[in-house]
From TrEMBL:
Signal peptide (UniProt feature, chain positions): 1-24
PROSITE patterns hit by this protein: LRR
Pfam families on file: LRR_14
GO molecular function: kinase activity
Organism from which the protein derives: Musa troglodytarum
Keywords, sorted A to Z: Glycoprotein, Kinase, Leucine-rich repeat, Receptor, Repeat, Signal, Transferase
Protein name (record): LRR receptor-like serine threonine-protein kinase
Source taxon at top rank: Eukaryota
Disease resistance R13L4/SHOC-2-like LRR domain residues: 77-259
Length: 336
């Protein structure tokens, strides 16, 4: 019996050592400042699934908020000694109200922060600039207001910024032009004012740029010239008073181009259509542009909307324009 007892003692000790090493996720040790920050956030936002944060470690792998796909999700990064930091936080579409607490910006190891589709009040605290490791920030449709803080310039690791459908006011800040690692920038449906800052020209890694609904001073399109990585470009209702630049013909990745509802003028450069073989959607509606498009310009698979302009098609122009007026989607070159 003694050997058997020794075996079970050894087995128990072995299993316990695995759990203690963190493979079972029970003895993680989260950074004390971050742990306290999460507990303060839980109290203010009243997230019910986080209630046990007050007595357990946030990086415990067995807790529901650690499961992949969970909303009100917390993700951690732990070193071999099981010392952990919070790197991802998702509180999406949870009807959370109130202000964003300063405690949030004590989570300085965050890489991904998703707070979209909530009912926050007030603005973004200037302490947002402490999140220097952040790569993705989603604050779309979150109820935020006030100016976008200049401290955003400190977030130089940022690759994605979605800030659309909020009541932001003031000027579209030049500080965003310092975020040169951005690949996806979306700011529209706000009360921000233009012009689009000239230093946005430094954002040459952008693959998606969606700006819209800017009031105030006019903008021009010269800042776009070196953004040749763009796949999606949308500048809707941005008070753009300019010609459509011919350099857009060199944007070989571009598939979606929306310049509608601006003050664009002069001739539409047809080479933008003929030389960008990947373009599938173009909308230049409600601008002061003119020009004549041939059947070669409007190739198969290209959807183009130019209602509200002085442009026309060289043949069958009236049926084509009627198509735009009658259909919910833009016309294609295949319209009979």
């Amino acid at each position: 019996m003694v050997p058997q007892i020794r075996f079970f003692i050894f087995l128990f000790a072995f299993v316990f050592s695995i759990i203690s090493s963190g493979r079972g996720g029970r003895l993680n040790n989260t950074n004390a400042i971050e742990k306290e920050a999460l507990r303060n956030i839980q109290k203010q936002w009243r997230i019910t699934t986080w209630e046990t944060l007050q007595s357990t470690d946030p990086c415990d792998r067995l807790k529901p908020w650690r499961r992949d796909g969970e909303n009100a999700w917390i993700n951690c990064s732990c070193n071999p000694n099981n010392n952990c930091s919070i790197i991802e936080l998702k509180v999406f579409e949870m009807n959370v109200s109130g202000r964003i607490p300063d405690a949030l910006f004590n989570l300085t190891n965050l890489v991904n922060l998703s707070l979209g589709t909530n009912r926050f009040s007030g603005g973004i605290p200037s302490t947002v600039g402490s999140l220097t490791l952040l790569e993705q920030l989603y604050i779309d449709s979150s109820g935020l207001s006030g100016p976008l803080p200049s401290d955003l310039a400190n977030m130089t690791s940022l690759k994605k910024l979605w800030a659309f459908d909020n009541d932001f006011t003031g000027n579209l800040p030049e500080s965003i032009g310092q975020l040169t690692n951005l690949t996806d920038l979306q700011i529209y449906g706000t009360s921000l004012e233009g012009p689009i800052p000239k230093n946005f020209s430094a954002l040459t890694k952008l693959e998606t740029l969606k700006l819209g609904d800017l009031s105030g001073a006019d903008s021009n399109l010269s800042f776009l010239e070196n953004m040749k990585s763009l796949f999606t470009l949308s500048l809707r209702n941005c008070q753009v008073a300019d010609e459509i630049p011919t350099f857009l013909r060199n944007f070989s990745n571009l598939t979606y181009l929306f310049l509608g509802n601006n003050a664009l003028s002069d001739l539409f450069p047809s080479e933008v259509l003929t030389e960008n073989k990947n373009l599938t959607t173009v909308d230049v509606s409600f601008n002061n542009i003119s020009g004549s498009l041939s059947s070669n310009d409007l190739r198969a698979g290209l959807s183009m909307n130019y209602i509200g302009t002085s442009m026309n098609r060289q043949s069958d122009s009236e049926p084509f324009l009627k198509c735009i007026e009658m259909e919910s989607s833009p016309c294609t070159s295949n319209y009979p």
